Amino acid sequence: MSIKNNHLTAPEYELNFSDIHPPFETQDAALIEANRCLFCYDPPCMKSCPTSINVPKFIKQIATDNLKGSAHTIFSSNIMGAGCSKVCPVEKLCEGACVYNFMHETPIHIAKLQRYATEKAMDNKWQLFERKPSTGKRVAIVGAGPAGLSCAHTLSREGVDVTIYEKESKGGGLMTYGIAAYKVTPEFCEDEVNYITSIGGIDIKYNQELGKNITVEELQRNYDAVYMAFGVGLARQLEIPGEHLDGVIDAINFIYELRTNDYSSIAVGDKVAVIGMGMTAIDAATQAKRLGAKDVTLLYRRTQEEMPCTEHELNIAKLDGCNIIWLASPKEVLGVGGKVTQLVCNTMKLGEPDASGRRSPVATGETITLDVDMIIKAAGQMPFETLVNSNKIENSKGKIDVKDKSLTNLEGIFAGGDCVNGGREVVDAVQAGKDGAKSIMDFLSIN
User: Fold this and answer.
1) Are 375 and 254 members of one domain?
2) Residue 170 to residue 290: CA distance in whole angstroms
3) Are residues 242 and 372 located together in one domain of the fold?
4) What is the DSSP string of 8-22?
5) pLDDT confidence of 66, banded at 50, 70, 90?
6) Nearest residue to 148 via CA among 421, 434, 447
């Protein structure tokens, strides 16, 4: 067993990381699907979307060959509608609410139709919004992820001049750096950022990190308002012996490296254990398999009933050949010569429900041992607690406290997205950005 790169040939990498949700190949295919829609009154699909996209309306516009109108309907509610069509867990949102499910029929492929309209808009560079004349107001946004970009576009449409400070060299946040490459490519993310900023009035300053290159005091002094949208990103540690042996890495860094380098340069083990069962864990496991790992095992301390990922995501891992071990919690990492060789896990049973409402895992006293040469930790992400505390922003263990959806305790400072909620879906961050923009416009007495 060994950790190495370049397991596969170039064509194998291309195949393994090709689009997992291919678009409609023809206009006729899109029209046929659009005409399946029942165009429900008081549609449940719209209610289940955090950004409240008018799903029946945009599908009807596709059915009547009004693609510009369809894209405008989508982008009016969700400026990242193109990206969300690729990464949203639609099976628990719009498509999961489709009335066809209650008729025991296949739900409308809402995401695929959304992708059809929005990608046409991006490919043709349709500018569907006209920016109002500048108000003279200036807003700083920290973070060019979904919440920050959504807030920026909403403000810019109203004539507010926006400057985004982004610590990475590219925008997009989680979309660019934290999602499986077979769902959305970095190239698409760059195109989406460029499309969003093409409205004008949005300047992104890259490689500018809060607390290093800029300070809250500077932003308060130079801008009329500030929106914090820097997300989360610190990997939660396991706090077990052997955790720092060579070969034990966190999923955030693993996916980041994969998103920013050629696939052939990414080292992966032959026998990989992934700890966790959230979306990040699934992405890490499936990509390890697609990079050439022979054996990938996902371990979760609870049962399938309590898992945070969707069944759809779990099925992707299963189809890729990943193994699943339920009721297993890491106890110790063993190694030889400083390199990981085994993972010892406690076998668990479920006890009484905890604060989250899920039954708590309790050790049975028995253990299992897996032979591994690589362990990927995907036990969750933690907020930037030190950063938040150093700027005297009220918070709950690093998650910024807000009232009225985006107001912080500091005058003129607003916040939203993962740095507030601790980490949800991209579509939730987009809605948070819209909420933040509304609060800022109220604060600046715009409209």
Assistant:
1) yes
2) 25
3) yes
4) S-HHHHHHHTS-SS-
5) very high
6) 434
